Amino acid sequence: MIHRFARLLLVCALGTALTSLAAEPDPKIVGYTLPENIKWVDNAARTNQSAVLYGDPTKPGPYARLIKWKAGNMSRPHYHERDRFFVVVSGTWWVGTGPKFDPTSTKPMPAGSYVVHYANGIHFDGAKEGDTVIALHGTGPVSTIPAEQK
To answer: What is the DSSP string of 5-56?
Structure first.
């Protein structure tokens, strides 16, 4: 009985050790950043935070970012010169179109929604009741052109 128990412990220990070794992907094949290692940066107005995951939005080429809108904050009408692609990761992101800023006209995009901001389309967006995280992919360099009609 003791021999069988010792053998079971050895198998469990080896299984745990092998699982630990196999769990680390080859960095030449898979790149990743765990949540605790994502570097969030406040924007100048402190209305949202962003984290660049890939590339550099200020330079030509593809990039990926996370944007965390703080509750109660929205952008003013603006547009970008290139298409931008989003997935709502958590919370609800509110999007509106046109040069007149009207948060009551925005449409809620709950977590899991996919959104495209087409090049040169005037829009505004943000978070209302709670914080919202969106994942963004695009091609740089990013330009944000104000387009509010007062």
So the answer is: HHHHHHHHHHHHHHHHHHTS--TTT-----GGG---EE-TTSSEEEEEEES-
CA distances from 32 to 52, 82, 86 (A): 13, 26, 19
What is the per-residue pLDDT across 34-81, written as a single tens digit (0 to 9) for each?
999 999 999 988 889 999 999 999 999 999 999 999 999 999 999 999
Q: Would you call 96 exposed, middle or buried from its count of C-beta atoms within 10 A (0-12, 13-18, 19+)? A: buried
CA–CA dist 149, 133 (Å, integer): 28
Residue whose token pair is 């080859």: 26
* Domain at 29-146, CATH class: mainly beta
pTM summary value: 0.81
SS3 category, 127: coil
| Closest alpha carbon to 83 in 125, 147, 146, 140 | 140
Tokens at residue 110, please?
Answer: 């709950």
With CA atoms as reference, report the closest residue to 89 among 117, 74, 56, 67. Answer: 67
